[in-house]
Write a structure and sequence with these properties.
Layout: E1 17-22, H1 26-37, E2 42-45, H2 61-66, H3 68-86, H4 103-127, E3 131-133, E4 136-141, E5 144-148, E6 154-164, E7 168-170, H5 178-181, E8 183-184, H6 185-188, E9 198-201, H7 205-216, E10 221-224, H8 235-247, E11 251-253, E12 256-263, E13 269-275, E14 280-285, E15 287-290, E16 294-296, E17 328-330, H9 343-358, E18 372-374, E19 380-384, H10 387-394, E20 399-406, H11 409-413, E21 421-428, E22 434-441, H12 445-457, H13 462-466
Parallel strand pairs: 1-2, 1-6, 2-3, 6-17, 8-15, 9-10, 9-15, 10-11
Antiparallel strand pairs: 4-5, 5-6, 7-16, 12-13, 13-14, 18-19, 19-22, 20-21, 21-22
Helix pairs in contact: 1-9, 3-4, 3-7
């Protein structure tokens, strides 16, 4: 594939810009800033459509404003409460009965940091000479967009190339009261009043993460699950997460789906739901948060006017980030990529695309073996195949699963639970026990997973893991001393260090 994948003139093309990027999230910012490094004239269009209850935010996209960043900060808030309670066993004089969390303080602190990032991104664009246009852009032909600003004024802009990176927005179920009274992850991180008794509808990582930190900071929280937890992730570990959350105080209604929501005179939300046998029940909540998935945010983008193909799911099919229209590209959550809806995937794809288009770059985005972490109360990090997918791909006889439970040293003095943290390596026997799946359930899983992701990218085998000397006493060293397999039937539970 050539470094320039469409063949219109690179200079003197007669358009307003060399590149227009539609969407000011992580991928769009990455791509636009990289393109200006190579002397290109670039504009970024970003406009946040309000949520059903009116929530908006600044430049930076989902991750910065209503995703990864505020989510992890609230996850940290919940962990700190547990650490404070555990600290008494380490000699700190703390009255556990007097511990109180202040929701307003947390929200203000999180939003102050998010706003500082919004400002920082605007400064970066200015410094990189990227023109930032706070307006809603839509195609009116393959080389022209019409942008509408907050005052309703419109203006047309043309470009040699376009990158579409508008991301997605949370789904709402098609039931009475959902949009009128429910909220989503787009709203929770800036919610000015405490959520109180909360129902989280969904079993996605967003659902479990939100339920985890809400329970952790002291709210009565219930998760309504239609079927399985964490679809697409390793199901053994997904169920272990659910059990741990239940022990930590999160309730589960499963299997069940909401049927309608009504607001009572006392301002409570009455949720009527039905289980898998058709039995109906209802319960009152202060807040109902929907986390049932996300839809690509393309409704007002005018892709049909640009003749860009769109799948029934709303996602844009791509080959090396290129759509069916040679000069229009797409990156991030709006695309049908195999790397997952993850910020670093969009950032990497955007940066590499700009280099290929404008600096004779050759490297393509690799959507395989992308590491990820679910920031539930007990964190879950993974790279590669789940056990189910590995068996499906290679067959049960060609898979060896090494696994073990472990207890972090830090949990011993504070009398933490035994045998709830878990890890496994999924290996292919016919390929010299090449590791094709890496999974860890435990504290700091993201930090551990990021490092080992490189090993999987380089094709490491179980022998390579065994040949590494571990750092003692750490969680990560457990991956260097695993010797029990599921096939053997030996007990993977562990005592001592």
């Amino acid at each position: 594939m050539s470094s320039i994948v469409d063949n219109a003139p690179e200079t003197d093309h007669g358009f307003d810009y060399d590149l227009i990027v539609i969407g000011g999230g992580s991928g769009g910012l990455s791509c636009s800033k990289e393109a200006t490094r190579f002397g290109k004239k670039v504009a970024v269009f970003d406009y946040v459509k309000p949520t059903p209850i009116g929530t908006t935010w600044g430049l930076g996209g989902t991750c910065v404003n209503v995703g990864c960043i505020p989510k992890k900060l609230m996850h940290q808030a919940s962990l700190l409460g547990k650490y404070i309670k555990d600290s008494t066993d380490y000699g700190w004089n703390v009255n556990k009965d007097e511990l109180k969390h202040n929701w307003e303080t947390l929200v203000n602190s999180v939003q102050d940091y998010v706003h500082s990032l919004n400002f920082g991104y605007r400064v970066q664009l200015r410094d990189k000479k990227v023109e930032y246009i706070n307006a809603l852009a839509k195609f009116i032909d393959p080389h022209t967009v019409e942008a509408t600003d907050r005052k309703g004024q419109t203006k047309k802009y043309t470009a040699r190339r376009f990158v579409v990176c508008v991301g997605g927005r949370p789904k709402y179920p098609d039931i009475p009261g959902a949009r009128e009274y429910g909220i989503s992850s787009d709203d929770i991180f800036s919610k000015e009043t405490p959520p109180g008794k909360t129902l989280v509808v969904g079993a996605s990582y967003v659902a479990l993460e939100c339920a985890g930190f809400l329970t952790g900071v002291g709210f009565d929280c219930t998760v309504m699950v239609r079927s399985i937890l964490l679809r697409g992730f390793d199901q053994q570990i997904s169920e272990m997460i659910g059990k741990f959350m239940e022990k930590e105080g999160t309730k589960f209604l499963r299997p069940a789906v909401p049927e309608h929501i009504e607001k009572l005179p006392n301002q409570k939300l009455k949720v009527t739901y039905v289980d898998d046998k058709g039995a109906k029940a209802s319960e009152e909540f202060d807040t109902v948060l929907f986390a049932i998935g996300r839809d690509p945010d393309i409704q007002q983008l005018g892709l049909d006017k640009a003749t860009v193909k769109v799948l029934p799911s709303g996602k844009i099919p791509i080959v090396h980030e290129q759509t069916n229209v040679p000069h229009i590209y797409a990156i991030g959550d709006v695309t049908e990529n195999k790397g997952g809806e993850l910020t670093p995937v969009a950032i990497q794809a955007g940066r590499l695309l700009a280099r290929r288009l404008y600096n004779q770059g050759k490297m393509q985005m690799d959507y395989t073996l992308v590491p990820t972490t679910v920031f539930t109360p007990l964190e879950y990090g993974a790279v590669g195949l789940s056990e189910e997918d590995a068996i499906k791909k290679y067959g049960p006889e060609d898979i060896e699963v090494y696994h073990t439970y472990f207890k972090p040293l830090e949990w011993t003095i504070s009398h933490g639970p035994d045998n709830v943290c878990y890890l496994k390596l999924i290996c292919v026997l016919s390929q010299n026990e090449k590791v094709v799946g890496f999974h860890i359930l435990g504290p700091h899983a993201g930090e551990v997973t990021q490092g080992f992701a490189l090993a999987l990218k380089l094709g490491s085998t179980k022998h390579d893991f065994d040949n590494v000397v571990g750092i003692h006493p750490t969680i990560a060293e457990e991956f260097t001393i695993m010797d029990k397999t599921k096939r053997s039937g030996e007990d993977p539970q562990k005592t001592g260090c």
